[in-house]
Design brief:
heterodimer; A: 161 residues; alpha+beta; 4 helices; 40% strand; B: 120 residues; mainly alpha; three-stranded antiparallel β-sheet; 3 strands
Chain lengths: 161, 120
């Protein structure tokens, strides 16, 4: 199954440490917010099949100061947890959470704005530094290890002299 | 023993294992610079910096151009392509998520209206 609607999702590197994603949804902000903050609904879309790794569990205490924890994995034997806290929760309008699984985790801000019958969703990921954002990209890019290994070998051979 | 593959995180570090070379790429990400600028910035001799830039240039991460007596360095095509590829992949992840979210939103709308499933 291919990816649909790529053109509707825009991504911009707003600064050296910030990424901004925008997307319109055909529904009111309160419904998009509900789908984002209800664990059983959230689990249906956060890990789409194309991502390759299913979401095993999702706990979210959606209120300012509340925590969340997501676990990804093929089964229980090997899993990866993502967790953090909600720094700000304004029902149907705004969510801000931390990503605390690594020291260099981003702070994510999502806003839900009603525009007629649609919702303009804006997601911002602000990393503590440019390097942290670069590392996040590298971590996400599954094809990078081989490229880097090749590069590594090349650098090593060039530097050997 | 289970062999764990090297994680992308580790790989990126070992690939650009030299702090100066990583710093040079980061610096050039902010703007072009001459070898002299870079040498000063990283407290190195001109010869030392030339060697680092030469390495990065040979693998396409940095491109240089000599105008008069000054050799200007900028990010190479490879580095720029990598960054573009990352952004592309990041966008694809969100696009896939949001397509799935569309379905949830549609379902909630239908439930709210009490329309039932005939609109499918």
């Amino acid at each position: 199954m291919g990816l649909k609607g790529d053109s509707r999702t825009t991504v911009e590197r707003a600064s050296e440490s910030e990424l901004v994603v925008t997307r319109f949804f055909d529904g009111p902000a309160r419904i998009v917010f509900e789908a984002w903050t209800t664990p059983e609904l959230f689990m249906r879309w956060w890990a789409p099949k194309s991502m390759g790794v299913p979401l095993l569990s999702c706990e979210m205490d959606v209120r300012t100061g509340g925590g969340y924890r997501l676990e990804f994995g093929q089964d229980g034997s090997e899993s990866w947890a993502f967790f953090g806290r909600y720094v700000e929760v304004i029902p149907n309008a705004r969510l801000v959470w931390t990503n605390e699984e690594s020291e260099d985790g981003a702070v994510t801000t999502v806003t839900f704005e009603d525009e007629g019958d649609r919702t303009l969703l804006t997601l911002k990921e602000l990393y503590p530094s440019k390097e942290a954002l670069d590392e996040a990209f590298i971590g996400m890019e599954g094809t990078m290890p081989e490229q880097f290994e090749q590069l590594d070998a090349l650098l090593a051979s060039l530097g050997a002299g | 023993m289970v062999q764990f593959p090297q994680t992308p995180f580790d790989a990126s570090f070992s690939a650009l294992s030299d702090a100066t070379r990583r710093g040079v790429l980061e610096q050039l990400g902010r703007g072009d610079a001459s070898i002299t600028d870079l040498a000063e910035k990283f407290h190195m001799t001109l010869t030392g910096m030339k060697k680092h830039v030469g390495l990065l240039e040979r693998v396409g991460l940095v491109a240089t151009e000599k105008v008069g007596r000054v050799r200007t360095c900028r990010l190479g095509r490879r580095r720029l392509e990598e960054e573009a590829a990352w952004i592309e992949r990041y966008g694809q992840l969100w696009a896939a998520r949001f397509d799935a979210l569309d379905e949830v939103v549609e379902e909630l709308k239908r439930k709210e209206k009490g329309d039932g499933p005939e609109g499918r």
